[in-house]
Amino acid sequence: MLGVGILLPLIGFESGDPDSSLYAAIASDLSTRPVSQWMAPEWWGHWNIEGFFREHPVGIFLPSALLASLGYPAAQAAYLVNAVYQVLTLIAIQRLAAFYVPGAVARSLAWIVQLLPIAFAYRIRANHEQAVVLCLITALYATVRSRSDARWMVVTTLAFLYMFLVKGLLVAFAPISCAWLLLVSRWASPRQAVHDVYAWAGLAVAVVVTGVAAGLYEVVYLFTTGESFYAVYLGKWTSLGFQTAAQPWVLQKANNFFWYLGRLLWFAFPWSLAACWAMWSIMGHFDQIRSESPLGRYDLQTRRALTGLVIGLGVVALYIGLLSLSNHRTDRYLFPGYIVLGACGAAVAGWDRGSARRTVLAMDRWHPYTPMLVYCAGFVLYLASRLTVWL
What we know:
This protein is mainly alpha-helical. Helix content is 70%, strand content 0%. It has 18 helices and no strands. The longest helix has 29 residues, at 197-225. The radius of gyration is 22 Å and the shape is globular.
């Protein structure tokens, strides 16, 4: 992170992505205002728009504005914060996977995920996606930990809260995903599931706390600006999600599904294919494993791996299913799905006895240097490509 923090302002990095440039600029402007005004950022003329910024809650701007206010170059603060999100996400994925697959396979995800096509596209950004996937993976990890230690639901609650502050309505994906994790865990290990009452109670508390925080957000916003946040925010996203479609409803939703599916397969390639193959295999043996103790005939490691795979594929299905119901197509909303599907596919390949397994074991000898080197190489190559464009 030290090298990233030095290089970005040294070369005066600016993103070519319009959204990233906008969020970096608003965070920079926000850092020059009194903290009492941070609750209500404005467009400040960017994209030739004036007035309050109510596209999303304020969460994506706060860490960047704080960093800039502490003296870091304001124009690059958002990109450094996003890099921190990336590194924390890699750590969280590895920790979560360690509950379901052997250590070498789990550790390999920290460098394999960085080689997904979507990772190249989002290498240095300042928008919401990396923060959202970090919150989702952290919430899932904390939910697993809460099955044996209820104190971890505090972490789940914090992940929900920040995901709401960053992405508003899309926080709904997090509690549903955590509930799915607990349901699948109960299906896979019925006897152990009797201890999940605290995890379910903690999940309920996290949802309630997030709901209360969402209500308080409107109160504070009204107090700060004299205007409603949700009147604009909900109105915009409702109109985008339910605007009249030119096609019949069923056909339009089917088209949405295949549109998102195509992006899912590409942006998580090639591991998306491995994950799909594994899903097909599970469906082919569903009648055999459906019983009172569905995974009882497998050894412990295989039961854990199958449980993790079903959890991951369920989260991906949740994202693509709910997004397909909207009339608003935006592939960046599926960003967590790309990461989760890629991680599932890579874990499946690493679990196999073929060349992928041998590669994982060979690269694991260099852990933790492998993910660090992959990150540094990707970062430098991205900067070099941008410098080529600037020159």
